[in-house]
Amino acid sequence: MEITQAPTRDELVGRASELVPLLRDRALWMDDNRRMHDDVIEALTDAGILKMRVPVRYGGFESDMRTVVDVLAELGRGDGSTSWTVAVWAISTWMLGLFPDEVQDEVFATPDVRISGILSPGAMATPTDGGYVLNGRWSFNTGAQQSAWNTNAAVTPTEDGGFAPVMVLVPISDLKIVDDWHTAGLRGSGSVTTIAQDVFVPRERVLQMGPVLQGHHQSRRNAEAPIFKAPFMPTASATVSAPALGLALGARDAFLERLPGRKITYTSYENQHEAPITHLEVADAITRIDEVGFHAHRAADMIDSKGRAGESWTLEERARVRLDLGAACQRAKEAVDILNGASGGSSIYRDVPIQRIQRDVQTLNLHAILHPSTNHELYGRIVCGLEPNTPYI
User: 4 in a domain, yes or no?
Assistant: First the structure.
């Protein structure tokens, strides 16, 4: 086992920033080919970005959530699909840290191992000698084709005739890949469907979902690490707020880079940057981008501060992270919509980044966990004294 000195937040963000030109250069290829480019994966690996949520005893960094958010946002400034995929890998890697230590020993024995995951229970885990037999399918399995392991949700029968949700860890090689990721946005994430057909899963690779959602786990050696003291849903929600921030920042960059020399057709403005409407739109968009950062960072900072202090979470605090996630996505979409609308007819060509950014941020806002209205309703219910209408909190 390798103990390393973790890079600082500034250093990791700097490494991500250095990758932005590469991500922008490969973004159209990834959009066309519906997966991450091998050059991008190699660069992410060399930069150590995939180690952020790996325990230090395996050579990882155990980076705090603020670092994860800032790094992912910087990646999103270059390409939304890359940021989203790395976010899913980060969540799933963190999830592995909840499994028994001997399971972690097996998986993390492979340096820079990539782990994808799905939270929606799409399979049945039937008990058998020594474990479970898994059958089912999962759509939206981000990065699965370029991962080695999957942390997937399933249900297992209970003694009272019902079903209980569980998390299962399976090698990607045990699953059938269905190449069906033909979508409008986040195309480079390769979020294909995977199918399990009579896959045996050893008992130690199955976690009960209830304790996981409450922040309880079976790892002895991770028990005192601050990053593993946060509940699952706040951790996951804060992580996936970062691509929204990155896309909003990327839209700002893309718009301002095309602005010099552009005119407003059918008007007297020979330079768009001289028009008052441009000034108003840019200021409005940047204000909303700042609000994205506020919500993403508030969620991250609460996770970090409570983890370091070992404090328990209230229901309202859990819901507030979901609120922050929804607000971040909503404000990001608003900012991108403003800048996309101000980009003119020439921006509809596929080699112009703003149209891809707009498709990506729209896709984020449609995700069931990220959907602004769903998250706002959840928080409002709790503040108004009602019970949550979901266990995913």
Answer: no
